[in-house]
Design brief:
Helix 2 runs parallel beside helix 7, helix 3 packs antiparallel against helix 14 and helix 10 crosses helix 14. This protein has a single domain, classed as Growth Hormone, Chain: A. The protein is mostly helical and 420 residues long. The chain is globular and about 65 Å long. The protein has 15 helices and no strands.
Length: 420
């Protein structure tokens, strides 16, 4: 009787799955939905990173640059990112990654649209607010995205990092390219309303789907990651991320204004050069993956750090389009190799870190990336714009020095292991 009953139950379950496939539990589909939302989040991170660089020319800051005001804008952005990172664990606990990503995307749409309606002579506080909202949105998107990508990261960390980098590069390219085309045709009329449709669409896309099942590993926030850095090696890696991202993003944020002021380019040409920089970063990420299989990772890391330093040196002193293009190309290709290799080394050295731990680590780098443009602006107010590119040059040199220190530390550690 038991065998007959078990066989009948099995037949009934098979018939149910064939005749009524819509009854498959939605939880089985949630990992795929979480992956789609995570990829959308990485794309949105790129959009939110690239947008501030276009606003400086929209607000006609290239005519009479108010460097202190520009520094205040980027400082507001950094404060927004820091606030979102500081409250990331609380927001994820209360809202969940699904709702946090949707709300952050909608906040990003508001922040992107605000520059359209805050042109001078509007109060500068309105422009500060737009940068602050963009920073809050970026921090929230990072917290949710790194939480949603955990399952995919555990399956294949290398492929996840590659796809994420490509999506972020594509997202960063769109605002730069749209702004260049818009200035050439209509002088930015309606540009930010058009760009705001991207985070708005992502927010509505996320809201349409059911929330994904929450993962068991809680996110490590900004402060928690700092507490994890107990050894000198942790601090070296943290400093590397900070200065590398500071150099990479300060070039991206400051390049359009710098090219207009130092090389005499039109705003449209400067924005096309920014698009070229973003495209070089994007293609360099994929070129790095092909070269990683043929060359030593440590040598590639050191060579790319030296290349980025050389590119920033050329860009800072360039007074024509040829020098600017060469400087942007060298710095972009150098940066495109440094960051993936650096993340790879962190993952290989600290295998106990899960993907959401990189929310805090990545956020630390983002904070450096938006504090650096603020410091550049304040420095330009004090010593002139010609000296502004000195700061990313110093940051790039510090990356090279820190990489050398990490190489020495690895040699010492290996010698200790052999002796023991």
């Amino acid at each position: 009787m038991q065998c007959v009953g078990a066989r009948a139950a099995k037949i009934e379950s098979v018939a149910t799955s064939v005749l009524a496939p819509e009854r498959i539990p939605s939880a089985e589909l949630r990992p795929q939905n979480a992956n789609r939302r995570a990829f959308a989040g990485f794309f949105l991170i790129g959009v939110l990173i690239s947008t501030p660089a276009t606003t400086l020319l929209v607000w006609n800051y290239h005519l009479q640059p108010p460097y202190s005001v520009i520094g205040g804008h980027f400082f507001s952005y950094a404060l927004g990112v820091l606030l979102a990172l500081r409250t990331g664990r609380l927001l994820l606990t209360r809202l969940g990654a699904h709702r946090l990503l949707a709300l952050s995307a909608l906040a990003g749409a508001i922040g992107i649209m605000m520059p359209e309606f805050s042109l001078p002579p509007a109060a500068s506080a309105l422009r500060h607010a737009s940068f602050g909202i963009l920073g809050l949105a970026l921090g929230g998107v990072m917290a949710a995205t790194f939480q949603l990508v955990q399952r995919l990261y555990q399956q294949d960390a290398a492929a996840t990092v590659n796809v994420a980098g490509g999506l972020m590069g594509l997202g960063a390219l769109l605002p730069a390219l749209f702004s260049a085309i818009s200035y050439s045709w209509t002088e930015f009329r309606g540009l930010f309303v058009l760009l705001a449709l991207i985070p708005l669409a992502i927010g509505l896309f996320v809201f349409r789907h059911k929330p994904a099942a929450q993962v068991s590993t809680l996110d490590l926030g900004f402060v928690d990651v700092l507490r994890e850095f107990r050894s000198p090696v942790h601090l070296l890696f943290a400093a590397l991320l900070f200065f590398e991202t500071a150099a990479e993003l300060s070039v991206a944020q400051w390049a359009p204004l710098h090219l207009v002021l130092s090389s005499g380019m039109s705003p449209a040409a400067a924005l096309y050069f920014l698009s070229f920089y973003c495209l070089a970063l994007l293609t360099g990420r994929f070129a790095a993956q092909a070269m990683l299989q043929r060359y030593s990772h440590r040598r590639l890391l050191m060579a790319s750090a030296a290349m980025s330093w050389m590119g920033i040196s050329i860009l800072g002193s360039a007074n024509n389009m040829t020098g600017a293009a060469l400087g942007l190309a060298l710095s972009a290709f150098g940066f495109s190799f440094v960051y993936p290799l650096l993340v790879e080394r962190i993952g290989a050295r600290f295998r106990e870190y899960h993907s959401s731990a990189f929310h805090g680590v990545f956020g630390l780098g983002m904070l450096g990336g938006f504090l650096a443009p603020a410091l550049i602006a304040f420095w330009a107010a004090y010593s002139g714009e010609a000296a502004a590119m000195t700061l990313p040059l110093v940051c790039s040199f510090l990356v090279f020095v820190l990489l050398a220190l990490l190489w020495i530390e690895s040699k010492i550690s290996a010698a200790r292991v052999v002796r023991s």
